[in-house]
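Hey, resending since the last one bounced:
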Amino acid sequence: MPAPSDNMKINADRLWDSLMEMAKIGPGVAGGNNRQTLTDEDGEGRHLFKKWCEAAGCTMGLDQMGNMFARREGTDPDALPVYVGSHLDTQPTGGKYDGVLGVLGGLEIVRSLNDLGVKTKHPIVVTNWTNEEGTRYAPPMLASGVFGGQHTQDWAYALEDAHGLKFGDELARIGWRGDEAVGARKMHAFFELHIEQGPILEAEGKDIGVVTHGQGLSWTQVTVTGRDSHTGSTPMPMRKNAGLGMARMLELVDQIAWSHAPDAVGAAGHIDVFPNSRNVIPGKVVFTVDFRSPNLATIKDMENQFRMGAADIAGAMGLGVAFEKVGGFDPVTFDEGCVSAVRNAAERLGYSHRDIISGAGHDACWINAVAPTAMVMCPCVDGLSHNEAEEISREWAAAGANVLMHAVVETAGVVG
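The structure tokens again:
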């Protein structure tokens, strides 16, 4: 199919204004956003997105996981659509761009094609995936995971948040449970624009990251059990300090990740200490170890090393330890044709670019299992994300959206 012309660009000011308007919904306390999935704020953001899509001439579809699909028709009614999108939900202390740039960048493609009078053979569908963040309901990328066949809908519906509220019930409560069967849609291709959430592009002065692979991820929840006792009156030799055991295990996590450098990382981001009192030695701790690598064998090796090492630490300290795999996915290799469309778009538009591996999970990782998929990344300041101080420039947003548009339109086929 012919490539779009070099002068085909999105409206950068309109995209930026849309990002700022969406950021008014679910504002955070420090300049970012708290628009967690299936909250009233999530519902409000969805309504705004739907209004914008319908104003752009799209028809809105909604499936039983709350995934939103805004369709711009193509000239061939039998051609499978090219999908583009990301997510509108945020972390509790999230930024204004994580996920949102990918959704509103997709909308801006539709708006700009309308302005330019450009038709495509394949329809274009802008998507908002439900609960990508996985903060309120774990795991992340939940609804795209159901769509891609990784999870069952019944299992997802039964998930509970910290207050015991079920996913299915909350989806219905905010009014965004559709009738369409999840995963019934067939895709010609899927593209996702996202901020890097890392420091590489900014540090190297690159405009665009051409995402070739996604890191695999392993989450292991670890429960260490000791004995609650008084911090002042319990002699040191008689303590069974679960907190100290955790500290030694966390040091082990760091050592294991360093031993698999440079492409492996590891940490614990979720920690609960019981009873969490100033004058009580912890009798139990629960934490989640997060190992990531683009190599599946490396992930498995890190998991095995940690389990064996943590068991040794617990045994030497007289502690109990239990492990539960609570999440994860294998490394992803994105579609060669879609990746080439992204790279070609960056070159055609004159943007500096480099191949990059995504260090975070994204909806594209699950959709890659059911459709040809690729990702576009733009820099973010200091690589900071999942933080209200997350920031990008208007120019970075425009560059990413321009490359996205060219890759999508090339794949959808320009008519005339």
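The two ends are 11 Å apart (CA to CA).

Sorry for the duplicate.
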